[in-house]
């Protein structure tokens, strides 16, 4: 069958001895604004043979001096870092960029990896870094570094099984899972139709039914050839840009090459560069399709960042803290995807993606199509299994539904003291996060919040202090029927404090358990969340009814004075 000769930049299959090291190096480079990315990770022996032959047939084009199974790349213990500037790969090591390469090598050494030197100590090639102390000769004899895992071992074993070239392949790692042979009596009864096409699971995208289900949605929105002047990706066909095709083929391509792209090659690019690179096959279905769709639209790295941001938006944590938003699909991020309720996380992800799309400068040109696509995606997601996992008890909405209420609150607080505006607005917004589309309910909320937050009413343009209209003979506000129902003592004690106490209690109950604080009080709140929310909601409601009662009496008194 043979292995692919395509370049592979996926670090998730590398030997664990360098997998995290490579991710750490890349993260550090990005933090220092040095634009290196992994150009190549695992390299098949077929690709190694192709590169080796290229140097022998084209003078001056040598890129490697060893044949298949002679490079550390074949064993998943080396990577090539290359500069990526303006979405184009660059091997430029002159001028100011020379320091970029020096810094990359410095970080490699600090993580137990090394560039390649000859016996004289001369640097052979700058992009290549590998694990210190390994030998291709030893590994070709089956002596592999300790600490391997099944992911690495299984991929290397596949390369070994599919090797058809000259020369012997190395022994398989001991960790490689071996499928037991079929029962000979059962095998003898099987009839294989002569001449039938057997799908190749590595190169034939049609072999993967799960991918095909999601890809059918993508194909609906990625049309034929286009070369829109506002599209920064340039000439595009079936969703594959000219830059992506050039990167895939490893050579420059023309607009005509893009126009002549076949569906089979486009599907293979989608499956390899987006679906597989984001490890969508390991995700629950609802998350797999939203991540895949976003990777196609905005790139795999941004898709993974949205996963991390959406998880954090929900107030969830891994080992007591949120995910780091670095666009790297590591152990913690994948674990978060697999263990979180897929429906909730997918919704938060799509909210994030829509917000990003609306922020783009080309939204006026392509926005309608993007939003139609997102609406169709939400419908499609709702047809998929909901999945299982942790479901946040308090979902922090990031939609724009509360924008009009927020504007109302800002206006309602215009007369409040500056030092109170921010805190009151934050409390009110938290209470309103469980928004509703029901217009009558929203109108009621506005009315109640106005009574709650404003401290004066106006009559004929003149402000009237509430306190001057509600004092009794003793100079203190008399109890309303709402407060009097609690009794004279309790009524006076709670007068003016029910709404504040209720809101404060709701805020503590909803927010404190998510701050990572430990203690008996937090444990009590976590164990009695529903009860406390009910009690404080009733208390807040009682306080609002009291304010309505006061407002009714107040209006009557104002009218009386006006007469």
Automatic annotation (TrEMBL):
- Domain D-alanyl-D-alanine carboxypeptidase-like core residues, every copy: 13-120
The protein's UniProt keywords, in alphabetical order, are:
Carboxypeptidase, Hydrolase, Protease
Origin: domain of life = Bacteria
Q: Please name the GO terms that the record assigns under molecular function.
A: carboxypeptidase activity
Where in this chain does the record put each TtsA-like Glycoside hydrolase family domain? Answer: 217-299
The record's listing under CDD domains reads: L-Ala-D-Glu_peptidase_like, N-acetylmuramidase_GH108
A Pfam family found in this protein is Glyco_hydro_108
> Under what name is this protein listed?
D-alanyl-D-alanine carboxypeptidase family protein
């Amino acid at each position: 069958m043979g292995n692919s000769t395509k370049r592979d930049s996926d670090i998730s299959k590398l030997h664990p001895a360098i997998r995290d090291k490579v991710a750490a190096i890349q993260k550090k480079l990005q933090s220092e604004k040095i634009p290196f990315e992994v150009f190549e990770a695992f390299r098949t022996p077929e690709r190694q043979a192709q590169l080796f032959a290229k140097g022998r047939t084209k003078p001056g084009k040598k890129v490697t001096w060893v044949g298949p199974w002679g490079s550390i790349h074949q064993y998943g213990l080396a990577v090539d870092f290359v500069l990526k500037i303006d979405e184009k790969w660059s091997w430029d090591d002159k001028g100011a960029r020379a320091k970029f390469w020096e810094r990359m090598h410095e970080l490699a050494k600090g993580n137990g990896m090394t560039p390649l030197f000859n016996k004289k100590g001369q640097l052979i090639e700058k992009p290549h870094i590998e694990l210190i102390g390994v030998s291709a000769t030893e590994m070709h004899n089956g002596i592999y570094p300790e600490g391997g895992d099944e992911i690495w071992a299984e991929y290397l074993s596949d390369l070994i099984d599919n090797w058809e070239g000259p020369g012997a392949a190395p022994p398989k790692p001991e960790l490689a899972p071996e499928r037991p042979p079929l029962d000979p009596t059962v095998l003898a009864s099987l009839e294989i139709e002569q001449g039938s096409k057997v799908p190749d699971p590595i190169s034939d995208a049609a072999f993967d039914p799960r991918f095909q289900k999601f890809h059918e949605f993508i194909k609906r929105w990625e049309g034929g050839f286009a070369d829109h002047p506002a599209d920064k990706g340039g000439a595009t066909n079936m969703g594959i840009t000219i830059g992506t095709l050039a990167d895939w083929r490893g050579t420059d391509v023309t607009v005509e090459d893009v126009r002549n792209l076949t569906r089979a090659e486009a599907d293979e690019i989608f499956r390899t560069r987006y679906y597989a690179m984001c490890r969508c096959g390991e995700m629950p279905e609802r998350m797999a399709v939203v991540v895949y769709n976003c990777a196609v639209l905005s790139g795999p790295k941004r898709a993974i960042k949205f996963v991390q941001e959406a998880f954090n938006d929900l107030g969830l944590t891994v080992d007591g803290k949120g995910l780091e938003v670095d666009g790297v699909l590591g152990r913690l991020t994948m674990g978060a995807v697999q263990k979180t309720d897929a429906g909730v996380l997918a919704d938060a992800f799509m909210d994030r993606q829509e917000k990003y799309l609306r922020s783009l400068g080309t939204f006026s040109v392509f926005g309608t199509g993007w939003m139609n696509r997102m609406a169709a995606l939400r419908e499609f997601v709702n047809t998929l299994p909901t999945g299982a996992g942790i479901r946040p008890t308090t979902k922090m909405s990031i939609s724009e539904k509360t924008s009009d209420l927020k504007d109302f609150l800002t206006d309602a607080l215009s007369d409040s003291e500056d030092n109170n505006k921010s805190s009151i607005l934050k409390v009110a917004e938290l209470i309103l996060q469980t928004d509703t589309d029901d217009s009558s309910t929203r109108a009621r909320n506005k009315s109640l919040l106005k009574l709650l937050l404003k401290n004066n009413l106006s009559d004929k343009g003149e402000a009237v202090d509430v306190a001057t209209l509600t004092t009794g003979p003793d100079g203190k506000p008399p109890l309303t029927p709402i407060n009097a129902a609690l009794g004279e003592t309790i009524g006076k004690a709670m007068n003016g404090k029910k709404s504040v106490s209720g809101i404060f209690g709701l805020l503590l109950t909803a927010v404190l358990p998510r701050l990572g604080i430990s203690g008996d009080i937090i444990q009590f709140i976590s164990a009695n969340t529903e009860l406390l929310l009910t009690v404080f909601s009733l208390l807040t409601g009682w306080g609002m009814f009291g304010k309505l009662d006061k407002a009714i009496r107040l209006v009557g008194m104002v009218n009386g004075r006006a007469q």
